Amino acid sequence: MLLTYLLKHHRIPFLRTPNSPEIRLECPQCAQEGLKVDNPRLFYNLRKKLGHCFRCGWSGKEKELALLLNLKDSSATPLTFDEPSPERKLPRLCPVPAEVVPAYTHPRSRRYLKSRHLSVTAMQKFAFLYSPRGESYWQDRIIAPVFDRKGNYRTFVSRAIDPTAAKRYLYPKGSSMGSLLYNLHFIKPGATVWITEGIFDALHCYPHAVASFGKHLSDMQVLQLRMHQVTSVVLLFDAECWQKTPELWERAVKKLQQHFFTYPLKLSHDTPTEYPLKDLKRMVRSLM
């Protein structure tokens, strides 16, 4: 349970420091000593879990700060701060189809991925594969391997090249996409993370973004972010999410706000891939 959530729950005001894992709040120790407290001088680093008051000199870790602020749970017992629960059992490993070839080696898949603004170097970096036309269930599809946050292969997502295909995306049977976030292993621990819906949106925003494989953000995906020491997130779903399914948008925002500094970015139209990366960065900066 993050300190910021508890501060909100107990209605203790605090200020966020832009582009920093620090928050600033009033120091109860100063109030007890009769010092002037009109300007918050207690700084707490959410990443290092250390606090220091630059007025009275108090310093302490998370538990000491909890006691200083008299934070209690619903049973009125002193609150204990625990690390996020250990990661659950990894989802079942789903091997890639036997007939696949590296995507950059096949003219059809290479042409499609270049139309999505991916270079041959990027195709190799992100390990894109291609299932050629034939009798396979995955025929004529791009195969994108999906890794856990530590970089271990777990499953894959397939994208149809043919625009008339009945289903654009297919997943292997038994895969648990709700337990994974695409490209999280490329994100530096503790960095601000942009959350997109699709994998190509995440690739367009590389190295800032992960993909949730749709509009539904699961508790396990939130846990993955917490285990990755993330403190700030930008919600960058497609424009139709907040325009046509506002309930899903609000649900994702509320779920993220329980654990992170959350910055919902409502695109005016289309998907993130329709915007230059420099424009997306400018919009993100305007929120933070």
Could you describe the 3D structure shown?
With 288 residues, this protein is α+β, with helices and mostly antiparallel strands. The chain has 3 domains: 3-69, Alpha-Beta Complex (DNA Primase, Chain A); 93-175, DNA primase DNAg catalytic core, N-terminal domain (Alpha-Beta Complex); 177-288, Dna Topoisomerase Vi A Subunit, Chain: A, domain 2. It is built from 10 helices and 14 strands. It has helices at 3-9, 28-32, 62-69, 107-115, 120-125, 199-204, 219-227, 239-244, 246-257, 277-287, and strands at 15-16, 22-25, 42-45, 50-53, 59-61, 101-102, 129-131, 141-147, 153-160, 169-170, 193-196, 209-211, 232-235, 261-264. The strands form 3 sheets. A 5-stranded antiparallel β-sheet has the order 1-2-3-4-5. It has a 5-stranded antiparallel β-sheet with strand order 6-7-8-9-10, with no helix packed on it. The protein has a 4-stranded parallel β-sheet with strand order 12-11-13-14. A hairpin with a 5-residue loop joins strand 4 (50-53) and strand 5 (59-61). The longest helix is centred in the last third of the chain and has 12 residues, at 246-257.
Question: Which descriptors would you attach to this protein?
Answer:
DNA Primase, Chain A; five-stranded antiparallel beta sheet; 10 helices; 27% helix; Dna Topoisomerase Vi A Subunit, Chain: A, domain 2; 288 residues; alpha+beta; DNA primase DNAg catalytic core, N-terminal domain; elongated
How are the SSEs placed, and which strands pair?
Elements: H1 3-9, E1 15-16, E2 22-25, H2 28-32, E3 42-45, E4 50-53, E5 59-61, H3 62-69, E6 101-102, H4 107-115, H5 120-125, E7 129-131, E8 141-147, E9 153-160, E10 169-170, E11 193-196, H6 199-204, E12 209-211, H7 219-227, E13 232-235, H8 239-244, H9 246-257, E14 261-264, H10 277-287
Parallel strand pairs: 11-12, 11-13, 13-14
Antiparallel strand pairs: 1-2, 2-3, 3-4, 4-5, 6-7, 7-8, 8-9, 9-10
